[in-house]
């Protein structure tokens, strides 16, 4: 076992083609907080992290050529049906609200680059 164990997950990267457009979506539409926005010359853009209020783990909006990936990120919400309706009204690309017996309500969501996320109650 390592003398320096891993103690957590700080951030998960999501590739985006336009960081400003991504911030507008993740902050303006989803309501996440922008936690960090710093220029990184070697990176060809900025290091931007967003997260739900109070969350430990952040989402890094990383400049990338390959977008439209399934991120595996599952966001939690208190009322999936209400968020689904709100995002639909605002023009976000959301999948069907899934209501299965014994499973929390959930739906898929795509950001402006087509990256897939899931929302689970």
Automatic annotation (TrEMBL):
<dbReference type="InterPro" id="IPR004360">
    <property type="entry name" value="Glyas_Fos-R_dOase_dom"/>
</dbReference>
<dbReference type="InterPro" id="IPR037523">
    <property type="entry name" value="VOC_core"/>
</dbReference>
<feature type="domain" description="VOC">
    <location>
        <begin position="8"/>
        <end position="121"/>
    </location>
</feature>
<protein>
    <submittedName>
        <fullName>Glyoxalase</fullName>
    </submittedName>
</protein>
<dbReference type="InterPro" id="IPR029068">
    <property type="entry name" value="Glyas_Bleomycin-R_OHBP_Dase"/>
</dbReference>
<dbReference type="Pfam" id="PF00903">
    <property type="entry name" value="Glyoxalase"/>
</dbReference>
């Amino acid at each position: 076992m390592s003398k320096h164990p891993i103690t957590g997950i700080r951030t998960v990267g999501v590739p985006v083609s336009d960081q400003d457009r991504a911030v507008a979506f993740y902050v303006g539409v989803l309501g996440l907080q922008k936690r960090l926005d710093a220029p990184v010359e070697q990176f060809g853009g900025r290091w931007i992290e967003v997260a739900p209020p109070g969350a430990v783990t952040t989402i890094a909006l990383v400049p990338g050529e390959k977008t439209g990936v399934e991120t595996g990120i599952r966001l939690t919400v208190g009322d999936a049906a209400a968020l689904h309706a709100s995002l639909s009204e605002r023009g976000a690309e959301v999948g069907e609200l899934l209501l299965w017996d014994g499973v929390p309500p959930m739906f898929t969501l795509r950001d402006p680059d087509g990256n897939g996320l899931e929302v689970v109650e």
